Amino acid sequence: MMQYQTRIPSLSNVTATHYTPGADHLYYTDVGTGEVWWMPVNPATQLASRSQVVAKGQQLNLNVFATTDIQWDTAGANLLAKNFARILPLSGVNSLAEITPASLEAANWASVSNNNSLPENGSSTTGRFYAVRINYASEYHYAKLRIYKLGTQTWMDWVTYTLSPNPYRVGAGLTDVRDLVVSEYETALYVTAYDASSGQHSVLSSPRTSSALSPYPEFSIQPQPITYQILDEPQQLVLDGEFVYVVDATTLWRISLTTQETWPVVTGFSNGKGLLLSSSGPSLMAYIAESTGKVFAVDISDYVGGPTSIPVSQPAYQLTTTQLGFLAWANPERSAFYVPLTDTREVARIDLLAGGITTEGTTPTAAPGPSSIEVFSDSTLYVACTTELGRFTRSITVSNVLLLGIGLIPFGYINNSEQNPSSPGPDDGKANTSSAPGYYFSGYPNLPFAGDLSLMLNHPLAWNSGVRFYSLKLKNLASGLTRSIVDTFYDFKWDAAAAPPRFNSQPTASTAGLFPIRDPAELWYNAYLAALVKTSTADNGHNVLLVDFYDANKQPIPNGGFSRLLFVDNTRCGVRLELPRVGSSTTPPAAGVYPVLECGCLAYVTKDDLVELDFVAWQPQGSGSYSLRVSGGGGNIPLLAQDGTVTPAPTLVSKTRTSANKAIRVGHILGNCDVANVTLALNVPSRVIDGFGWVNLGAYTSRSFTVIKGPISHTPWTEP
């Protein structure tokens, strides 16, 4: 179950939200005031990043707002803070990347006054580094900057952040908003809301009015309808390329953003509320939810426009609810989605592959039930609960054990790691969090480990049990070799005596092969970190991690030995991709005979000429999957895509058939074109982890060329 926390309380009527994956902010609308708000969701949100030549006397605006923040004086000898800003010099810094937003906020700002000045002649070739605190309304923005000499010119590089969690108003003029989506690059927002000009609810657009350089977008306060079709209680929106899809009480509508043509795509349901679209190759599925809990899955791939709609059949899912909110995809693969159950205050999850429905979390009884969900990661959701914005987080609880896991993966979620069988199976020792949907790596079972592994240990429990030291060894079962883990590792430790108090980097080294248990009174940033186990191809296969505990006298503690099984695979994947072999319209091309590009071109005689594609994708353990993709004329060609499992040794694969089991011909690549730029791409993504993320051991290659009707002519050229 996910745990709920209130993020912003005391709101009036918030039911619509929008989040773009990868962004560091969330949009929401206040129905009561008709305003659109932009809310930071990370501890630090970058406002600006610039690099430019600075002239004597030049005034600079570091956060891209109206007022000047600093000035390099007319003599070029001092750096001046302006408009109540403050400047601090930074020592012991070699790059802007070393200066974190947290360190900017924690700097000793009390040591300088508003509008102070510092000597700066702009002559340093290595550069001088500064922190700037900028007054903005009732809060501060923070900038880090470097001033340096390059050639004959003085340059300034800077990055500015907001560390405030407060939202900013970026739009207004909306009435009775139901849903909100923001376009790519945040150039416009689209809402289902009341249109005063028609007296009806419609889909409205508010274009962005602020510059793309502005840290916060601003949108028009005079939204305009993008359709004049009368809609019956329009609800959730989906923006898909040049179309907006919207579900109303009885119909799923498709609206063209270029022509405003509005056509009914799906009909036959009632009390329409939620909508999601999912495309896979040429297939396009619509998931339509009624407010009372029925969810329909409708294939709309063949819909091309016009008044003839697709009727719904039996619902694919039925949720027990009297009021349902807007749907949200649960993962990038779109294999599951979340449903807010407003009346029961629950968040449900529907798994499209397994068909199951689970309850993921419940909001507190003091808040109204959730109406809109935004997915930030496998383990974090934001929800709109009318009077507040809240956050659901997921975690796996581990207790009453000394050895916890590798990075984010508890040993209990590594196959048979705790049992450590004497004859391990092929998947034993591999990470497997698939039984905890939404947790890290849960979408990929049986993942090997590779790279540098962070061992997590319950230091407080060990300390309170009388343990003061521990030793580590790694034994490879195939080679029988055992090696001691003694590498020094680093973590941040809180230093209350520092000025200002802060986390400082602190090494932990072994002495005579023993590492110290951390005192619970000390504050470490990674509280359970116990070792960095560096692995290589010599460790490939099943390994046993051996941990022994010692008392204050460095004597072994009886029954103080633990072992955990890990499967390590540091093997890189391999790929090879040949140019297509082209035959005639009746004769397949000769095997193993590959063309040579002429002027970057591959020639054909007719579009009926047979084509075969050769490639190789391998991994010595035969672990992994490949994907072959073909694009021509600027678009993907789903008919020629192929996915499969890698081979243990380089083995040539010849692709001769389309996904419709037809012989591949030149026309499948060119379509209606006679000439096209073509790209073949072969990818084997990495599917090994270090406990925190993917280890880059995958492989990728591509071939690009132009397909042209032959023969290819050549004209001599002599430079005049």
What does it look like?
By secondary structure, this protein is an all-beta fold. Helices cover about 0% and strands about 45% of the residues. It contains three helices and 55 strands. Strands 48, 50, 51, 52, 54 and 55 form a six-stranded mixed β-sheet that branches. The mean pLDDT is about 90.
Layout of secondary structure:
Blueprint: E1 3-8, E2 14-18, E3 25-30, E4 35-40, E5 45-53, E6 59-60, E7 70-72, E8 78-81, E9 86-90, H1 101-105, E10 117-119, E11 128-136, E12 139-150, E13 153-162, E14 168-171, E15 179-182, E16 188-195, E17 200-207, E18 224-225, E19 237-240, E20 243-247, E21 251-256, E22 262-267, E23 272-280, E24 283-290, E25 294-299, E26 310-311, E27 317-318, E28 328-329, E29 336-341, E30 346-351, E31 357-362, E32 372-377, E33 380-384, E34 389-393, E35 403-406, E36 409-410, E37 452-457, H2 459-464, E38 469-476, E39 482-484, E40 489-495, E41 502-508, E42 515-516, E43 529-534, E44 541-550, E45 556-568, E46 574-577, E47 581-582, E48 601-604, E49 611-618, E50 625-632, E51 635-636, E52 642-645, E53 653-655, H3 666-670, E54 676-684, E55 699-709
